[in-house]
Structure formats: C-alpha cells, structure tokens
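pipeline/complex-builder :: batch 7 item 3
reading input block
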Amino acid sequence: MPVAHFKLVLEYDGAGFAGWQIQREGQRTVQGELEAAFAELGRDLRLMGAGRTDAGVHAEGQVASVRIDTPHDAETLRRALNAKLPREVVIRRLEPVASGFDARSDSLGKHYRYCIWNGRLRSPLRAARALHVREPLDLLAMAQAAKALVGRHDFACFQATGSEVPHTVRTLTRAEISGETGGEVALDLEGDGFLRHMVRNIAGTLVEVGHGRRPPDGMPALLEAQDRGGAGPTAAAQGLTLVSVRYAGCAVPD
Amino acid sequence: MPVAHFKLVLEYDGAGFAGWQIQREGQRTVQGELEAAFAELGRDLRLMGAGRTDAGVHAEGQVASVRIDTPHDAETLRRALNAKLPREVVIRRLEPVASGFDARSDSLGKHYRYCIWNGRLRSPLRAARALHVREPLDLLAMAQAAKALVGRHDFACFQATGSEVPHTVRTLTRAEISGETGGEVALDLEGDGFLRHMVRNIAGTLVEVGHGRRPPDGMPALLEAQDRGGAGPTAAAQGLTLVSVRYAGCAVPD
C-alpha cells in the first residue's frame, strides 16, 4: 500500500474525553478514537496532534498530521472516518500534505478561547461550554491586565504545577477580553505556543483581577517573578476551546 | 403553614429529560425534579407549567405557577430549590403572585426558537442544540414561506398526529428566519399559543422549502387543507428552545 501523508482539521466536544492524547489504557481520548477509526483503512498509522488538549477541553480547529499506508484517497478517507467516529468528533478537512509535515512542530501559532458565564445564577444551557463566575467581573480591569501579556515573555508563572519544560518563553500576539459584565465573557489568546494549562491559568488569574483581588497592572511583576504560586487558580477545562492552529501561509481553519 | 403563590422562570437543558410533564412512573421530567426539590420546603404543592415542552426540548424562559403551604419567603425558596435541583435546571426567578395566577391559562403568548446547523458536516459542538441539515438551505424561500404563517390561521396541518385538540386556530405574530446558508440558521416563532409539535412541524416543513422540495408560496394552501399529511416531518427535539412566555404587562424573561 502506498504511504500517504495528510493534514486533518478536527472539531470535538471534549466533555466525554480524557483529553487528546492516550495516556493510560482504558481512557477514552480523541487520539484513541481517531486511531480506532483509521484501523481498517490502512496500516502503520502515525498520528500527531498540534495541541495536546486536556480532559474536557474542546476544539473547533485542532490539527493533526497523519502518515499511513493506505490505498484510499483523501475524500474517501474523510467520509469513511467521519462515518466511524463518535458524534463528539468530526474531521472537518482531510487533505494531502508533503511527507515532512508535522502538525505539532510545524505549527506557527494557536488561537484559544476561554468562555465565562458571569451570571448571578448558574446557566444550564451554558454549563457545558463555560466557567460559571457569579460575582460581577470588571471587564475593563481584566482587559488591561490581559493586554500586558501580549508580547514575548517568560510565562513560567502560568505553567502547570509539575511541568518541566526547560524553555518557558512564549510570544502572545493577542489577549483580548470581550462580552459583558453579568453575561457571556470571552478571553481570546493567540500566540506562537502555549505551556500546559497556560490559558486556563491566565483565565483563573484574570478572574481574580475582575474581582478586584489582584491589581490590573500586576501582570508584569507576576511574569517577572516566574512563580506558579503567584498566579491564580487553573480555570475549569470546559470553558476552553482550541479555535485554530496556524501554519506557514494560512490559519486553519480560516 | 401559610398558603403562598409564586411565579417561577426556569432555564433547562432538555437533553436528559422525558419532557416537562410527568407521564409515566420512572421517567425523569423537569416537573418531577421541581416537585422533588420542593418536597422538604412545604406541602400541598400544585405546580403548573406554561408550556409542556416535549422530551429533549430546552427552555431559556419556561414559566410555572406554584401554590404551596410554606413558611419560606421567595428568596429563601429560590436559593434552596436551586441548591437541590440538578445542574440541567435552574430557577432564574421566583416571585410572589396573586392567588389566581395560572402560568398556563394566563399566558398571552410564547416565543420559541428552532436552531439548525446547515453545515455539510455534522458539528459536535452544535449537535446538542441544533438540527443538522447537510444540503444548503435557501433562506430567502424559507423566510417567504414563514412570513405567510403570520396572522390568525387554523394550524391543524402542523399539529402532532393523534392530537385531538378541538380548537386549532392560533395567531402567530412573528415567524422569522435568520442566519446564513451553510451556517447557523434560526427560526423564531411568536404567537398566542402553539399546538403540540407545531414549531417542530413548521421547522420540518420549512426545511423542505429550503431544499426546493416545496414551493415558498405554498403555505396558504397547506394551512387551508388542514391535513397533517400535507406538511413536512417533525424536526428533531434538540433544536427547539422555549425562549419566553408573555403575560399581561410584560414578557418573561424580558
């Protein structure tokens, strides 16, 4: 069977998954579902996701690179895979790529969105996709704090406890707060790379800014201290969505 | 214990319920969850919902009237009930009303929204709240057909098969299509009353119009024939949301 290389763009509802990556036997993961779907369509599959989303995190535009020995063309594969995949996962696009393409190492940047429901009461219709924050949020203060994160910084203070990434400098090109106090609030972050839990830790820290428990101009000092204990808590997984992954020449999805 | 009368405004995710109303022992219903939550807070509860939403149908602003012997005030009740209710249901408001108030018979009108995901591919992040329609929809044709439903008509052709409501004349004050072909589409219907499955049957019929399988100017003849067999299929429950119920003086929620 000929060796083929593809780029996949995926949407998934993360609620029922222990994240993207297979970590322990018996856990249901997006990668595991994809591998199962590919099983009868070829052999010697190698699959790499651009972002290893955590348990409960959603994706509108996760990207994966695939190398597989298969007799099928891209459109046949996409249809067959989507028919096999569970309802929580869909392949939005599947296209041939050059053999050297690696979704993870070739990505130039990612766009994540973190959603908050800032209502006095919990909202059953929003619960699956947002963090519930009861107390009114000062969005101007949050936006000011977020803006200070844009640029090239050492984000060690926002990395997951226990992570041992040697290089924690990343560049954020966008850190925006939108929405309304007492309603739906979104944090959009775009950058060249993200440390484990970085978006959720930034969200948790900005919520503290929004409640006045942390000054809106405190981000530079927080970054400089490089101390995870100085930042806020990790915001819940269900509020986070990987919106898109950027590669040379184009954002995916565009 | 004093007799008290309240108006409740409710939001719920209908996915896990066999509808609003208790129909068979062992079925999980919104009414049943409310009655269970009220159980330790008073006695001789009488509970009436404005709209008997079907299994799987959601609500942003369902209204219920309650009569109960209770020593608690409205705010205490609301807090206690919301603490007891499952995560799929929340009481957005609970306020004292005159003893004669009946959420069902006093309602002057309702607003329902039916959501469609008109994408070539299914969308996991939209699946819980919309009907998936693959083929592109002609929204102008659908809007034209919908407009013809506004006014006072006999809606017998859109009533659930097997319904035996003697009086099937209703007045629609709004029937609008919004959104975009290939994207998210919404049908908003407002009227003084709705027959069983009426919104979902209208939605199913308008989808046929959107696919060119039914003329956009065919609604008057369809209404006139008063034949359920002449209309389209019942669109899936998960696309439907009861947005609000209107009473004299105000819409709820406003």
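note: The mean pLDDT of chain A is 94.
queue -> next item
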